[in-house]
Design goal:
about 450 residues; five-stranded mixed sheet; binds (2Z)-2-iminopentanedioic acid; binds NADPH dihydro-nicotinamide-adenine-dinucleotide phosphate; five-stranded parallel sheet; globular; 17 helices
Length: about 450
């Protein structure tokens, strides 16, 4: 990187760190984007003068609130609730809600920042947002989860709306939680609207939203491999982490495209099945009774369970699809992947690779599909759910799936086009950052100082 460009990046990051002390995940996400965009911004004085990237990195609004609820013993529990309304330049704030004990301001701001670019890449009219709570649903009864969701929505309801901010699911927020959240919104606001996506099919949900992130990840990966490598999933060995919504449907689509998926994991450990994962067993464990992935090895002869989730990256594969959580692949894991023959890493989770891991991919010519492009299928179908809600009709599975596939293929094409235009041919990361940025930046310049 040229000296004045590096200076711009360093100065920018010094400001970010000073203004957002201690928020290391947020710094990490911003740093990657600033490095990608620095040259382009320096070539376009209007973007510098209008402080577009500076404004994108400052949430328009952050709401933090108390969530008090009663557990099954009748005791009061108190959690923190958040909604980050990051950017509304190209549409209402849009992004998921995460319930996990690790949730804090830094994690939600990194996710909301990424979401702004991701949503722009879909080409649908959605701004960026993210929310959540440090509530841990593990071991909670269904009634406790319902009471928590009702308490959370009681406050959140005053900040969201179908034209202002439209949340959806993320880690530990799936169909059950969206149902409870929707019910409470409707009750409090007396309004039946598309204020949330990922809803049940009986009350305004879209077909294929459940599958969308995992399927979309495979459509993206297949298209990037086709264009850049003249290759496909056919006959490949695939390592997937996680065993939640994204992992399950990435496994399903990778298998349908002719690959053998050999792993699944959760935060306790991973399973390796050399014969290929039996997805009906995983679905029964995870979707059937919210069990642990360990159970798979007890049920499927020839498979193995290993404690600790990091070991999944030591399993030899051609393609790795991280689908669990942020920073799950560090430098050591990336090196293990490369040493064992992995040549493709596309991200289903948000920011699953550390900057050091990305450097390993780049140094070894790994086809690297960054999260904000590769996992955009979920929010893309959320956008299609909003369209269907506005029309008051629903499209068939095939219709939605077809639109999803073409959106993902377009993201590959648009990223590659942007990468080429900015002199970094074939760089899907830089291309995604640039393509996502330009639309938001142009809208912000046009709308004035806001
Ligand atoms: P789920 O809650 O359905 O599944 C999460 C999976 O990841 C579980 O297997 C969970 O294991 C594992 N996991 C979570 N935290 C950790 C951790 N700290 N270490 C190891 N494993 C962990 O969530 P999703 O599948 O929806 O989300 C997975 C990733 O995909 C997240 O990064 C999310 O932001 C991203 N994503 C999700 C989209 C969606 O539409 N749902 C869209 C785009 C991205 P355990 O049960 O032990 O916690
Ligand atoms: O990270 C993500 O893109 C999501 N969790 C999905 C967001 C959405 O609004 O569907």
């Amino acid at each position: 990187m040229e000296k004045h460009v590096q200076q711009y990046v360093d100065d920018f990051m010094a400001q970010i760190v000073a203004k957002n002390p201690g928020e290391k995940e947020f710094h990490q996400a911003v740093h990657e984007v600033v490095e990608s965009l620095a040259e382009y911004i320096l070539q376009n004085p209007v973007l510098q003068k209008m402080k577009v990237l500076e404004r994108i990195a400052e949430p328009e609004r952050v709401v933090m609130f108390r969530v008090p609820w009663l557990n099954d013993k009748g005791e009061i529990e108190i959690n923190k609730g958040y909604r980050i309304e990051m950017n509304s330049a190209i549409g209402p704030y849009k992004g998921g809600i995460r319930f996990h004990s690790s949730v804090n301001l830094s994690i939600l701001k990194f996710l909301a920042f990424e979401q702004t670019f991701k949503n722009s890449l879909t080409t649908l009219p959605m701004g960026g947002g993210k929310g959540g709570s440090d509530f841990n649903p593990k071991g909670k009864s269904d009634a406790e989860v319902m009471r928590f969701c009702q308490a959370f929505m009681t406050e959140l309801s005053r900040h969201i709306g179908q034209f202002t901010d439209v949340p959806a699911g993320d880690i530990n927020v799936g169909g059950r939680e969206i149902g409870y959240l929707f019910g409470q919104y409707k009750r409090i606001r007396d309004e039946y609207s598309g204020v949330l996506t990922g809803k049940g099919l009986e009350f305004g949900g879209s077909l294929a939203r459940t599958e969308a992130t995992g399927y979309g990840l495979c459509y993206y990966t297949a298209e990037a491999m086709r264009v850049l490598r003249n290759d496909s999933f056919e006959g490949k060995t695939v390592v997937i982490s996680g065993s939640g919504n994204v992992a399950i449907f990435a496994t399903e689509k990778a298998q349908a495209l002719g690959a053998k998926v050999v792993t699944a994991s959760d935060s306790n450990g991973y399973i390796y099945d050399p014969n290929g994962i039996q997805l009906d067993v995983v679905k029964d464990i995870k979707l059937g009774h919210r069990g642990r992935i360990k159970e798979y090895a007890e049920r499927v002869p020839g498979s193995e369970y290993h404690e600790g989730c990091k070991g999944v990256w030591t399993v030899p594969c051609d393609i790795a699809l991280p689908c669990a959580t942020q920073n799950e692949i560090d430098e050591e894991s990336a090196k293990a992947l490369v040493a064992n023959g992995c040549t493709v890493v596309c991200e289903g989770a948000n920011m699953p690779s550390t900057p050091e891991a990305i450097a390993v991919y780049q140094a070894n010519n790994v086809l690297y599909g960054p999260a904000k492009a590769a996992n955009a299928g979920g929010v893309a179908v959320s956008g299609l759910e909003m369209s269907q809600n506005s029309y008051r009709l629903s499209w068939t599975f095939e219709e939605v799936d077809g639109k999803l596939k073409s959106i993902m293929e377009n993201i590959v094409a648009n990223s590659l086009e942007a990468a080429k235009e900015y002199g970094h041919e074939g760089d899907l990361m830089l291309g995604a950052n640039a393509a996502g940025f330009v639309k938001v930046a142009n809208a912000m310049v046009a709308q004035g100082v806001l």
